[in-house]
Structure to design on (302 residues):
């Protein structure tokens, strides 16, 4: 079975060197609301990524294509590293000491562990169907992260200068790898026989609810911040998006429904050239990561 459409970049985890010790509390410089909006990447994404990783891990025993299995392993490595690095940023910003955040993350991790136990206990063929249902959620989430990653790498939409340099390096490295692995869960899902109906079943309600959940959670945190204390303002969000400090919710919203098309494939989402250009710019945070590859190439040529 063909498992992918078009060439896919190699999927492997990098280990960026990032130091958030000098990053300010409001790391989207001078903009508390935008910082609170993007902080969800640090405290929410890691729990989500652990859910994606476990879903793809649960599918691995069913993968019979060697390249796809290697890509699935690369996906697990990349997402696990993203989770660790965003948690490092969250710790610097002391986000886990906020009771709502700590409780939300702990509840998400408990539900994921419970799901793992339940899926493992199922007999076949129910287990395979449960894994497919889990993967369908991962595929949906990866569509959203691919859209966000593409916007994060687009200087016309978001500008790195608006963000603390170490946070910008974190976001751009993460965006590059999101684009690299965006097709992997989709291809695994299809390889296992996942249907269109299951893939889109939760998509429309998820797309409609997303801005309300995102802005609702952000507003709660903004009001709980003793140094800020204001509710979320849509007008300020649109101003920040115009200034390229945050991705515009409108830019994201118009690109989500493509997922509903029967011929959708993640390879059609995003521009790989921007990711390649970022890597080619030799960002210092990835300098050490390139060294082993150079040494491997040198050893191979001897
Ligand atoms: Fe990620
Ligand atoms: Fe991802």
């Amino acid at each position: 079975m063909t498992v992918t459409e078009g060439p896919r970049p190699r999927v492997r985890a990098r280990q960026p060197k990032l130091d958030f010790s000098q990053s300010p509390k409001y790391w989207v410089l001078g903009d508390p609301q935008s910082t609170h909006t993007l902080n969800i990447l640090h405290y929410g994404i890691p729990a989500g990524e652990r859910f994606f990783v476990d879903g793809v891990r649960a599918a691995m025993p069913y993968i019979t294509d060697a390249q796809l299995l290697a890509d699935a392993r690369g996906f697990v490595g990349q997402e696990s590293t993203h989770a660790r690095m965003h948690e490092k940023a969250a710790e610097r910003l002391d986000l886990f000491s906020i009771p709502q955040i700590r409780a939300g993350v702990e509840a998400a991790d408990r539900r994921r562990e419970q799901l793992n136990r339940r899926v493992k206990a199922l007999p076949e063929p129910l287990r395979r169907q449960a894994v497919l249902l889990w993967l369908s959620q991962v595929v949906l989430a990866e569509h959203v992260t691919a859209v966000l990653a593409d916007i994060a790498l687009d200087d016309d939409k978001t500008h790195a200068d608006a963000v603390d340099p170490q946070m910008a390096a974190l976001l751009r490295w993460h965006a590059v790898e999101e684009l690299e692995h965006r097709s992997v869960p989709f291809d695994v899902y299809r390889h296992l026989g996942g249907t269109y109906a299951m893939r889109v079943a939760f998509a429309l309600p998820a797309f409609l609810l997303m801005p309300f959940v995102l802005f609702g959670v952000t507003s709660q945190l903004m009001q709980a911040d003793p140094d800020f204390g204001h509710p979320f303002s849509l007008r300020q969000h649109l101003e920040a998006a115009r200034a390229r400090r945050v991705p515009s919710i409108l830019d994201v919203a118009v690109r989500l429904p493509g997922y509903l098309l029967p011929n959708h494939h993640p390879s059609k989402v995003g521009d790989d050239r921007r990711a390649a250009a970022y890597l080619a710019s030799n960002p210092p945070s990835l300098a050490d990561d390139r060294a082993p590859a150079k040494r491997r190439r040198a050893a191979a040529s001897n």
